[in-house]
Design a protein that fits this description.
The protein has 159 residues and is an alpha+beta fold. Helix content is 18%, strand content 31%. The site of nickel (II) ion has 5 residues, from helix 2.
């Protein structure tokens, strides 16, 4: 387990398309563990593998709703409905937030760390986080679609 460096906007790896995960092995598990450590250290709600320099289709999400960490490998949105408009930020774009319109509800198909297929449906922050993190896997950042992008005071870092 280790905290990884989070790549920031301007780094080319944030603009690349990530590749599917084929092997559900110890290396994947240790990458997932590092992603969790890095996410919690940064007080984020989601992190995608390309943000720490791995061009693999992996995201971790914890929206602090009591469900804990959700690891999604090779995730795909099956359905979405409705619309929500609200503030969004990104660990790769520190010090900024912007207003983004996303679906209000999504159903996402993915594999867990053992390669088992799973499906989840959720709304509001869950849907926003899933859309934001999956965009990272295709080299997209929320600042591409945000309105009213503005500087915010960065959160104090935990030491
Ligand atoms: Ni992000």
């Amino acid at each position: 387990m280790a905290i990884r460096k989070i790549f920031e906007n301007g780094d080319p790896c944030l603009r690349k398309t990530s590749k599917p995960v084929l092997l559900f092995d110890d290396r994947l598990h240790s990458l997932l563990d590092d992603m969790a450590d890095t996410l919690y250290k940064a007080n984020g709600v989601g992190l995608a593998a390309p943000q720490i320099g791995f061009l693999k289709r992996i995201v971790v999400i914890d929206i602090l709703d009591g469900n804990g960490l959700i690891e999604m490998i090779n995730p795909k949105i099956l359905a979405c409905s409705g619309e929500q408009t609200g503030p969004e930020g990104c660990l790769s774009v520190p010090g900024f937030q912007g207003t983004v319109t996303r679906p209000n509800s999504v159903t996402v198909l993915f594999q867990d760390r053992n390669g088992e297929t799973r499906q989840m449906t959720g709304s509001e922050l869950f849907a926003r986080a899933v859309c934001h993190e999956l965009d990272h896997l295709d080299g997209k950042l929320y600042i591409d679609i945000a309105k009213n992008l503005e500087a915010v005071q960065p959160e104090e870092e935990d030491k």
